[in-house]
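In the current project phase, the collection of sequences with tokenised folds has grown. A sample record is quoted in full directly below:
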Amino acid sequence: MCGGSGLGFDRDGGAEVENGREEEMRKKREKRGSLAGLVGRRDLGGGAADRPLKEAFSDLYNISRTRDASVAEVMCYANGSIFWDLHFRRLVNDQESQSLDSCMVLIYSTKVRGVGSDNLCWKPASSRGFTVSGFYHSLSPYTASYFPWKMLWQSKVPPRVAFFSWTAALGKILTIDNLRKRHFVVLEWCYMCKRCGESVDHLLLHSPFAMEMWSTVFCLFGICWVMP
């Protein structure tokens, strides 16, 4: 491209070419190295590594020779062992040596195979990868009690009966208290016993009609049971 003062690169065009070259070099580095491009941009897990390396060890990042270096560029793999060769513009001083020790301990505590391309890992189940069920269990609080869900869903009953039993066990059926939680304006009234107050436990366990029904079932099967 010809500029005003002779043969040269236009400013905008040169920037686009330069950005294209950087993008191509970044892709090559990612293909060449294991876990390439993670230094300074990803967490390695635990303690100071809850932040990116450039924030956890800002003093070392400031004296780094190649701040955008990929892991593949600083990781050396020889004789079945991995060692790290960090490049700095000068020797570290006494104040920075402690930070360097912490950084190296953090990096060496991370398991890297040394070969292969980058891939994302789901920490709760790294062997199986990310699953919706695994994400649900990581968000759900741990409870020691166990409900036989498989017995409920695999029983030979109509699907509507199984669905109602499931929602009732979760306390999600549309009783008056649950409707009010959804901001429905309804009268506080139990249609089974004609009294105020309708909840899941009251409707299915403690109302006079429910208690009579359960007592009949328990007597037929010879079960001694006390309602909670």
User: Anything to note?
Assistant: The longest helix spans residues 11-32. The two ends are 85 Å apart (CA to CA). Confidence is low (pLDDT under 50) at residues 1-18, 23-47. The beta strands are 2-3, 6-7, 75-78, 81-84.
